[in-house]
Amino acid sequence: MENQESKVNTVKRARSGAHAHSSHAVKRRNPLRPILTFVIIVLGVLLALSVFFRVSKITVDGNSYYTEEQIVQASGIEHGDNMFFVNRFSAASRIFAKLPYVQKVTINRKLPNHVVIEIAESQELGYVVSGDTYWAIDSNGKVLEKVDSKKAKDLIRIDGLSLKGPKVGQQIETKNGDTEKIEYLATILNGIQSRQMMKDIGYIDMSSVANPVFDYKGHFTVKLGSNENLEYKLGLLVSAVEKLKENEYGVIDLSIDHQAHFSPN
After folding, report:
1. Coil, strand or helix: which one is 181?
2. Is pLDDT above 60 for 28?
3. What pLDDT is recorded for position 35?
4. Cys-Cys crosslink for 253: which of 37, 39, 191, 261, Cβ 3.0 to 4.6 Å?
5. Share above pLDDT 70 across residues of the chain, in percent, rounded to a whole number
6. What's the predicted TM-score (pTM) here?
7. How confident is the model at residue 6 (pLDDT cuts 50, 70, 90)?
8. What would the pLDDT profile of 65-116 be if each residue is shown by its tens digit?
9. Which whole-number Å values give the CA distances from 157 to 85, 124, 187, 206, in the listed order?
10. Spatial distance between the Cα atoms of 171 and 100, rounded to a whole number of angstroms
């Protein structure tokens, strides 16, 4: 009887040991399955990206000064490039560096194969003179290109700045590093552009940053005062001129008491 019970216990222990050994074996294999699955999925995704998502169409919106071909070439984006590996920041930087009339760039992907380059272009607004050379600038004071005297006549002349070697694609600088003048000039030019007053301004004299002056309609010398409330001041100017007669000439001072003071010549 005892021998029979001993045999039964021996069999149970053997079965228990076999079961434990089998469980350990299963536990050792389980961690590899999710890792292998993940690797397979990643490789599949990379393969799909490299094979299926290739640039086959590039379009440009918002251009007028430059052709679509010039902009695409400047971007460095080419047909066959991987859509997800196109560096949009680098492409935009290349466009800015090579095409000075570009003011803003946005590059978007449209899956599976389409890249859209949207740009906004600068407008020639004024010109500065350095030596014997005329340089066209936009509303932010960025140098766009050299121009001849004939073309300069259609732009606003900027006086009162001693310039440090103008460079195309860069903002103008003064020899003494007077950034306050440049910033105020940009504010004035942006205000003029937003009100579509470009044809009415003959020159802007920035000799005094505390009180720049400009010619308006060939009839009035306008004193702006300090760099504050410019939009309001331009509104005062327009309202004041509407109340004057067409044959009147003089000085309109916008620097005093938030009012327009007219002194006839």
Report:
1. helix
2. no
3. 79
4. 261
5. 85
6. 0.78
7. low
8. 999 999 999 999 999 999 988 999 999 999 999 999 999 999 999 988 999 9
9. 46, 12, 16, 11
10. 11
Residues composing the chain = 265
**Parallel/antiparallel/unpaired status of strands 133-137 and 57-61:** unpaired
Task: Kindly tell me if the per-residue pLDDT of 52 is higher than 80.
Answer: no
Burial class of residue 26, CB neighbours in 10 A (0-12, 13-18, 19+): exposed
Region 191-199 average pLDDT = 96
Residue 79 DSSP class = T
Q: Please, what sign has the CA dihedral across residues 152, 153, 154, 158?
A: positive
Whether 3 has a pLDDT exceeding 60, the answer reads: no
Q: Look up residue 136 and give its two tokens.
A: 């066209």
Contact 124, 136 (CB under 8 A): yes
CA atoms within 13 A on the CB side of 137: 28
Res. 14: pLDDT tops 70: no
Cα-Cα-Cα-Cα dihedral sign, residues 71, 75, 81, 86: negative
Distance CA 240, CA 259 (A): 9
3-state helix, strand, coil in the chain (%, to 5): 40, 30, 30
Rg (CA), the chain: 36
Tell me if 178 sits within 8 A of 209, measured CB to CB: yes
Residue 229's SS3 state is coil
Amino acid identity, residue 126? Answer: G
Q: How sure is the predictor about 47, in pLDDT bands with cuts at 50, 70 and 90? A: low
User: For residue 118, what are the CA distances in angstroms to 12, 71, 104, 109, 131?
Assistant: 78, 10, 8, 11, 37
What's phi and psi for 106, nearest 5 deg? -130, 130
Residues 6+ apart with CB under 8 A from 195: 234, 238
Angstrom distance (rounded) from CA 39 to CA 44 = 9
